[in-house]
Design goal:
7 strands, elongated
């Protein structure tokens, strides 16, 4: 038993695969292995798996939804936008290959990320208060989550106008 989408089904699948090398019951149980998915809520009810020679059983269970976890905050219709569809790639900031206006570029070059806010889609805002000028931030996530960097003194306005979207507004 555990939180939603923490890998319970993946753990059981890996355990069955490892046990199958020495236990014929576990080998047979692999035919009925749990379905793994990046989307929370795939396991709808307890799944009993006869997995041991002595008659023992494993149970895969639905996740417990905790109010402070992101999956509990994001509406189900937004989850497909957030689920990675390919290998995750790093996105680094500041990225000098992205076109900044001259004022922003010179400010970043002289003071680094200090005084900037970074929005990761409509999910996260990071206000950078004090870091070394050479500091870089790296994000791993689905490409649908755009990363925007704005001066912190303009961050509230940015969020109210265009900062809530991830391919359209999220239903947060």
């Amino acid at each position: 038993m555990g939180s939603a989408n923490v890998g319970k089904s993946a753990f059981i699948n890996a355990l069955l695969k490892m046990m199958a090398q020495k236990d014929p019951v576990a080998a047979a149980a692999q035919r009925y292995k749990p379905i793994q998915s990046a989307v929370p809520g795939t396991t709808l009810g307890p799944i009993q798996i006869d997995a041991f020679l002595g008659g023992g059983k494993l149970y895969d269970t639905p996740g417990v939804h905790l109010h402070h976890r992101q999956a509990a905050v994001v509406h189900s219709e937004d989850l497909p936008v957030l689920a990675p569809r390919s290998r995750l790639r790093a996105q680094c900031f500041p990225n000098f290959q992205v076109a900044f206006d001259d004022t922003t570029s010179s400010r970043i070059r002289s003071n680094g990320l200090n005084g900037f806010s970074i929005f990761w889609g409509g999910l996260m805002r990071i206000d950078i208060v004090k870091v070394l000028p050479q500091t870089r931030l790296t994000f791993f996530g689905p490409k649908a989550l755009s990363i925007q960097m704005v001066p912190t003194d303009k961050a509230d306005e940015f969020y109210q106008t265009i900062g809530k979207g991830v391919g359209g507004p999220l239903h947060l």
